[in-house]
Structures are given as structure tokens and as C-alpha cells.
Amino acid sequence: MTLTLWRDGSWRRIMTQSRDHVHHLQNGYVNKQNCRIWNEANLQVYVETPLHPEKLTVWCALWAGGIIGPYFFKNDEGHNVTVNGDRYRAMITNFFIPELNNHDVQELWFQQDGATCHTARATIDLLKDTFGDRLISRFGPVNWPPRSWDLTPLDYFLWGYVKSLVYADKPQTLDHLEDNIHRVIADIRPQMLGKVIENWTSRLD
Predict the structure, then answer these.
(1) How confident is the prediction for the chain on average, in pLDDT?
(2) Any idea which GO molecular function terms this record carries (predicted)?
(3) pLDDT in tens, 106-146
(4) What backbone torsions phi and psi does residue 7 show, to the nearest 5 degrees?
(5) By the 8 A CB rule, do 37 and 48 touch?
(6) What is the residue-wise DSSP string for the chain?
């Protein structure tokens, strides 16, 4: 595949996906792992703090016409979890493909980064069943350059835009933060996405 595909307006048929970790900082918590306080007296004071802040792992896909998602990775008990191959494939099967079928998108191309859970053989086979040769991915029919965040609209636009707004009202719980993410993404208009994807073509030069 050459850049000619993107120069004739076909770039509007590219759907790109990504996930991000949205951290929830509660009770003014600051990571003080490398902070040292010296005192001549042994104060024998212990302060328990979490090693890491709570976080949500959020997935979205976008193209010039809209956004699918957000999708929050959770286990069967509703607790937030990180992504592995099984969870990623379950999301594709149970969420992404049904959502995709609700949109009027024909001959859509699908692009993903090179994360291990994205490029496992079982994942690539699942995506090829849906997109055929219109899969842009490491180990896919069309290769995608590794570590190319500057070429992924979710990385150079969406996650920064979302994070700039979801903390405005200082959410106190993960549920509140999740609600904010839903609201901010729902408010993004196709006109904005069209400009974001059009900007993507200039990054290929």
C-alpha cells in the first residue's frame, strides 16, 4: 500500500484505535517514593500511602466520522484491570465489532499500534476476519511503524484533549472520572474529528 491511498480522500476510511491509562489522584496523594526527610530524632511515624494511584484503562477507536467508545477494561466483578490479549480480544468481540456494525462504515481500514496484546496471532486472526487486508498493524497485511505515536490521532489529539477537560471539576471517585470521560468524548463533533484525521495526512510527509 502506498501513500496514494491517503491522498485521494481515502484517509476518511481509516479507523485508528488506542488505549490510555487515566489516573485518579485522590485525597491529594502525591507519589513520594523518592522523597526523603531527615531528622535527628527517630519519630517512629508511619504513613501508609498507595504505591500507585488508582487508574482506569480506557479504549477508543476514531475515524473522520465518529468515535467508538470509550470502553473501560474491567473484570467480571467490575474492578478496573489492565489489558492482556484475552481481554483485548473479548473487547473486540463483545464491544467493538457490535458497535462497528451500528455505524454506516463500509470498507473501513483499521489501524492499531504494536502492543503485544494487539499483535498476538489470535488477535491478528480475529481482526483479519473482520477487516481482511484492510488491517494496518504489526504482523498484519499492512505494516505500521513501531513507536509512531505522532501518527496516531488518539495519541496526538484525543487523550490529551480528554485529559485537559475531565479533571476540571476535580473528580473524587473513579466513577465520577469515568462519567466525565463519557461526557467529554460524547461532546466531540465529527467536524473536529475530520480536521484531526485530515491533519494526520500531513504527518505522513
Answers:
(1) 78
(2) nucleic acid binding
(3) 678 888 887 888 889 999 999 999 899 888 888 888 877 76
(4) -80, -20
(5) no
(6) --THHHHTTGGGGEEEEEEEEEEE--TT----TT-----SS---------SS-EEEEEEEEEETTEEEEEEE-B-TTS-B----HHHHHHHIIIIIHHHHHTS---S-EEE----HHHHSHHHHHHHHHHHTT-EESTTSSB---TT-GGG-HIIIIIHHHHHHHHTTT---SHHHHHHHHHHHHHT--HHHHHHHHHHHHHTT-
Distance CA 181, CA 69 (A): 10
Query: Looking at per-residue confidence, does 87 or 140 come out higher?
Result: 87
Tell me how far apart the alpha carbons of residues 201 and 9 are, in angstroms, rounded to a whole number.
10
Would you say how long the chain is, in residues?
A: 205
Separation CA 11–CA 68 (nearest Å): 17
- Read off the pLDDT of residues 30-80 as tens digits, 9 standing for 90 and up: 444 444 445 556 656 555 655 566 788 899 998 888 899 999 999 999 999
